[in-house]
Amino acid sequence: MLSTPNAGRLLLVLIGLCAVALGGVAPAGAQPAAVGTVTDLVGEATVTRHGASAAQAMGVGTELFEGDRIRTETGARLQLRLQDGSVLTCGEATDLTLDWVLYAPDQDTRSILLRVPLGIVRAVTELLVPHSTYEMYTNTAVISVRGSEWIAEAQPDATAIVSLEGEIAVRNVEPGIPGEVVLGPGEGVTVETVTPPPAPTVWGDARRNDFIERTTVP
Questions:
Q1: pLDDT digits (tens, 9 = 90+) for 149-171
Q2: CA-CA 20 to 30 A from 7: which of 76, 86, 133, 210?
């Protein structure tokens, strides 16, 4: 889990906890509610539940829970749908953790934090309303979503991001490094270790289509 969330995120968490409290308290020993489901899978993928040490094989219909760590093997493609309606498609050799997934439709609030230290993920989200956040953390970048479709490829020392639809904001993962850029449709950026994100550029068809192909379930 992320250890240094900012004040705004803490406020959203408190709002979400209040929303859950108003909705009632789960009985002691009750199973946590699933936050997503695997909707498509080609190849092999595993999930390690929060607090567990052993990974489990996944298949279409596998339920996902907050804190789950998902890994796809070489040649695999996996698609999952979160409870807020957003869709994530993982390419091969991808490591994705559902750090925080809160969706309270009655309060029209969502707070979602994803972590991708390695691999490539395409995300499709609906337009966010006030008091909502949707963020992806990699080793070098933080991607803040406003309602869009985008793809991020995370490597140990760099993250390449392209917006397919809508706008996304990108900054370095280190809080002390200034600068944030906003990507429009077709624009991309690569964020490297301990450097501010450079100005966005329009990606060529070949590079953009390569990212799309690698995050498409055949």
A1: 999 999 999 999 999 999 999 99
A2: 86
Residue 121 lies in a domain: yes
- Return the CATH number at 52: 2.60.120.1440
Host domain of residue 197: 7-21+33-214
Structure tokens that stand for 9 in this block = 């995120």
How confident is the model over 67-78, as pLDDT tens digits? 999 999 999 999
Structural domain includes residue 2: no
What does DSSP say about strands 36-42 and 56-57: parallel, antiparallel, or unpaired?
unpaired
Please tell me the pTM assigned to this model. Answer: 0.85
| b/e map 1-31, b = 16+ CB within 10 Å | eeeebeeebeebbebbeebeeeeeeeeeeee
Task: Please check the confidence at residue 9 and state whether its pLDDT lies above 70.
Answer: no
